From TrEMBL:
Residues 241-298 form the CTLH domain. Residues 1-175 form the B30.2/SPRY domain. This is RAN binding protein. GO terms for cellular component: cytoplasm. SUPFAM superfamilies: Concanavalin A-like lectins/glucanases. InterPro entries: B30.2/SPRY, B30.2/SPRY_sf, ConA-like_dom_sf, CRA_dom, CTLH/CRA, CTLH_C, SPRY_dom, SPRY_RanBP9/10. One of its GO terms (biological process) is cytoskeleton organization.
Length: 408
């Protein structure tokens, strides 16, 4: 579940009486006297920047600079006093409009950027990948203001003189600064680091690919790759086994279940005694194919004799109820159970048969390449949800494997 981002200014009981919010708590208006620095007031966002977010950015539009334009924009920790401008307290960071200085934990500023006034849009970016805060003015980056920042922070804005009025944009509207291009540049840096990591000898990778091809019975491609890797390539029992598995799985995917059962028994007599659940899955698929053909009387007779009688493997009751449910609908193809008639169902049963055939030969139930992918996905998910903020910028499929989702 994604963590919620800052979306408005906080209007809890701690909001200073010198400030007023408006427009869905995005605007802040100064209502104090502004006689001295003691009249300053700040407000922070309703939520902190989640630590798992690599790059957070928001913008503030100066609707009016008021009397003096003593406006501060930035970030602060939770317990920072809201009676001073951003940057004047420890764990507070601010860029001020009247002098263009940056302030970090003290009232003495550092020359940083230009001043800002009515009509200007100031952006504040907390880069948690590289641990710094930077600002933009009217869509142009001003560079890093505060390096070495690594703490839980809230967006904040502070006002000091009458008439000052600002409005925040936390992403509900397009930003003036091209933050997307900035994030993409950061992403390219992360990907370059990943790509520079040494990988094992090329033969190891190609053997992983070969194991995947042989598992899924891509006979021609597997044979071609094997010729490059091994003297003689795929021959004898290895090739015969793959061709046999391909034939049997193809029969299932074509809906020819009786032939698949018969030829499986002939080729590997021990198969169904070792894996009775696979035989049961094939029989359930046979029932589905009979429903597809439309002979209800024969289908019900088959169901009674093959699915409901005798000793059945675990989970059989649920499986039978599922496929028999097709008979309750005049048009099974338009029913809530229509997924049972889709090609994906055939392929799932086909893969069950394939795995069982491989198991009898002492081979793993899934290819090592698939195991590696699952491990990479698990590591990526764990990193993205904990301390590995850079992982949030990278999509395992599209960025690392070149797998693109279907177009909308």
């Amino acid at each position: 579940m994604a963590e919620k981002l800052p979306s408005a200014w906080s209007v809890d009981a701690n909001l200073s009486s010198k400030l007023e919010t408006a427009t869905c708590d995005l605007q802040v208006i100064y209502r104090g006297s502004g006689k001295s620095d003691a009249e300053a007031a700040a407000v922070k966002a309703n939520r902190p920047v989640p630590t798992s977010v690599p790059i957070f950015y928001y913008e503030v539009r100066v609707i009016s600079k008021g009397r003096d334009g003593y406006i501060g924009i930035g970030f602060c920790a939770d317990r920072v006093l809201m009676s001073r401008l951003p940057g004047w307290e420890l764990h507070s960071y601010g860029y001020h409009g009247d002098d263009g200085c940056s302030f970090r934990g003290c009232s003495r500023g550092t020359i940083y950027g230009p001043t800002f006034s009515t009509g200007d849009v100031i952006g504040a970016c907390y880069n948690q990948l590289e641990h710094y805060i930077m600002y933009t003015k009217n869509g142009v980056s001003l560079g890093i203001a505060f390096p070495g920042v690594n703490e839980l922070l809230y967006p904040t804005v502070g006002l000091r003189t009458p008439g000052e009025k600002v409005e925040a944009n936390f992403g509900t509207k397009p930003f003036v600064f091209d933050i997307d291009s900035f994030v993409q540049e950061q992403k390219r840096t992360v990907l370059a680091t990943i790509q520079s990591t040494p990988i094992p000898d090329c033969d190891v990778v190609r053997r992983l690919v070969l194991s995947y091809l042989t598992h899924h019975c891509y006979c021609g491609t597997a044979a071609a790759l094997a010729r490059d890797l091994e003297k003689g390539g795929l021959q004898g029992d290895r090739l015969d086994s793959m061709l046999r598995r391909k034939q049997l799985c193809s029969l299932v995917e074509e809906g020819r279940i009786d032939e698949a059962i018969r030829l499986s028994q002939e080729a590997t007599p021990m198969l169904f005694s070792a894996f009775p659940e696979v035989l049961f899955s094939l029989k359930c698929q046979k029932f589905v194919e009979m429903v597809r053909a439309g002979n209800d009387e024969a289908t019900m007779a088959y169901g009674r004799s093959e699915l409901c009688g005798g000793e059945q493997p675990g989970g059989a009751t649920e499986a039978v109820q599922e496929v028999v449910g097709l008979l309750a609908y005049p048009d099974p193809q338009a029913s809530p159970l229509s997924y049972l008639l889709e090609q994906g169902r055939r392929k799932a049963v086909s893969e069950e048969l394939n795995v069982a055939l491989k198991a009898l030969q002492g081979e793993p139930s899934r290819p090592p390449l698939t195991t590696l992918y699952c491990q990479a996905a698990a590591v990526h998910k764990e990193l993205a949800s904990t301390v590995g903020r850079a992982a949030r910028l990278v999509d395992l499929d599209s960025d690392m494997l070149g797998i693109r989702g279907e177009s909308a």
